[in-house]
Design a protein that fits this description.
With about 425 residues, this protein is an alpha+beta fold. The chain folds into 3 domains: about 25-180, Immunoglobulins (Immunoglobulin-like, Sandwich), CATH 2.60.40.10; about 190-295, Immunoglobulin-like (Sandwich); about 325-365 and about 385-420. About 20% of the residues lie in helices and about 40% in strands. It is built from 3 helices and 18 strands. The protein has helices spanning about 1-20, 325-365, 390-415; strands at about 35-40, 50-55, 60-70, 75-85, 95, 110, 115-120, 125-130, 140-155, 165-180, 190-200, 205-210, 220-230, 235-245, 250-255, 265-275, 275-290, 290-295. The strands form 4 sheets. Strands 2, 4, 5, 7, 9 and 10 form a 6-stranded mixed β-sheet that branches. A 5-stranded antiparallel β-sheet has the order 14-13-16-17-18, with no helix packed on it. The longest helix has about 40 residues, at about 325-365. Residues about 1-30, about 155-160, about 300-335, about 365-385 and about 415-420 have low confidence and may be disordered.
Length: about 425
């Protein structure tokens, strides 16, 4: 009876939770559709391209225009902002959220209108400014112009006045590629291969992590090879990688329709890019247990983005500085050296005292009982020399005397400013 009651309560609870959660799953009934693209052709082309592309020298200022369209059947209020470009999973261009900095190129763009309202079917030209910093490094720098609209939809529960609202965020963006003249370097590195998961419907899904080490975007194609522990090839899967932005990192997924049985395997990947250049990663070990990888794939982490340095460039120290604050650190080092010397002297004295004590015991054992009578109060017994604590004091004092001139010299000369030419 008790068991049946518990089962009934569990079923009733699950039904109630499902009933309450159902109204939160809603879809917007309106047809919301909008977009952004270049308003005019560039570089002598007759048709506008799908993204902005300009070759601009450092310090250049130019104005361009974007065409914004409302293709839906409802009025829209849209926000327009510049965002850093990022490489999407499997390659291609995505965009960071508003205010989220990735490569800093979004600061090169400024829009004239931050918010605009469009009626159904309406189009509008919006100018924006590109200002390349004077110290911009050679290579391709990518940002984007992003449109964002927030629409709401609602649904109410049956038999209740409560109403739940879901906010749906829709975004559309267009890339802005700024090519700064100078040395252009293409580079690609495979940083890892792993087995993500296995599924009876789709098979084994592998993940290949890559990083663009150059200053131009690259595309690649190649293969993923699965081998057993003895090196026998089990499968070769062709792969194709979309664009990876300069200095960025991402991963792409490769699916093999056959499930791998439990055991240990070796994975190797090779990608060709930039007119025949090849990058290879071989011998990544994967272990399968109970149909799934023992160690899955961890999220890839992009390396800190540093601006590419042209060949032959030299990095110089900043002028006008006071140099590194070495003075107090050298003082700390001198004091530490003095303490270490005092400690070493104390250990040496303790060992010497112990050795002399053993020698005295051996010597006293050879004399008569009368010769080993305890001396009177205030009189040292024969052969006794007070070496212990006095030698410690003397050694510590000597160490401090040696360290004091070093401290004074460091304070006098260590904080001097470096000579500037």
């Amino acid at each position: 009876m008790t068991r049946n009651l518990l089962v009934a309560l569990a079923v009733l609870t699950a039904f109630t939770l499902g009933f309450l959660a159902w109204p939160r799953i809603v879809q917007a009934e309106e047809n919301v559709s909008f977009g952004i693209k270049p308003a005019k052709a560039h570089d002598g082309n007759s048709n506008p391209p799908s993204y902005f592309s300009h070759t601009l020298a450092p310090g250049t200022l130019m104005i361009d225009e974007a065409l914004i369209m409302n293709r839906g059947d409802v009025p829209l209020t849209l926000q327009l902002y510049a965002a850093d470009a990022i490489t999407a999973v499997n390659g291609g261009t995505g965009f960071a959220n508003d205010g989220e900095e990735k490569n800093g190129v979004a600061r090169w763009l400024s829009v004239s209108v931050a918010e605009l309202s469009l009626q159904p079917g309406e189009e509008r030209m919006v100018p924006f400014t590109i200002k390349v910093p004077p110290d911009a490094s050679p290579g391709q720098h990518t940002a984007g112009l992003v449109l964002e609209a927030v629409t709401t939809g609602g649904a109410s529960t049956v038999g209740s006045d409560a109403r739940f609202t879901v906010n749906i965020v829709r975004r559309a963006g267009v890339a802005v590629l700024i090519d700064v003249p100078g040395t252009h370097l293409a580079g690609l590195e495979i940083t890892g291969i792993c087995l993500r998961q296995q599924d009876s419907n789709v098979g084994a899904t592998f993940q290949v992590a890559v990083r663009n080490t150059g200053n131009v975007y690259v595309r690649g194609q190649g293969s993923l090879v699965i081998s057993d522990r003895e090196g026998m090839k089990l499968a070769s899967i062709p792969v194709e990688m979309d664009a990876v932005l300069a200095g960025d990192a991402t991963h792409f997924q490769v699916t093999h329709p056959v499930l791998l049985p439990d055991g240990s395997y070796l994975l190797s990947a090779a990608l060709d890019y930039a007119e025949g250049t090849r990058t290879v990663l071989a011998g990544a070990e994967v272990k399968v247990k109970h149909g799934q990888p023992e160690v899955g794939c961890s999220p890839p982490k992009a390396e800190p983005q540093e601006p590419p340095v042209a060949l032959g460039a030299t990095l110089l120290p900043t002028e006008g500085g006071d140099g590194p604050p070495i003075g107090r650190y050298a003082i700390y080092a001198a004091c530490s050296a003095a303490l270490i010397a005092a400690a070493a002297a104390a250990i040496l004295v303790r060992r010497t005292r112990a050795r002399r004590s053993r020698e005295r015991v051996q010597r006293d054992s050879a004399v008569s009982e009368e010769a080993r009578i305890k001396p009177k109060h205030g009189q040292p017994r024969a052969g006794y020399r007070p070496t212990g604590r006095y030698n410690v004091y003397a050694a510590s004092l000597a160490a401090l005397v040696v360290a004091a001139p070093a401290v004074l010299l460091v304070r006098r000369f260590g904080t001097r400013r470096p000579h500037r030419r």
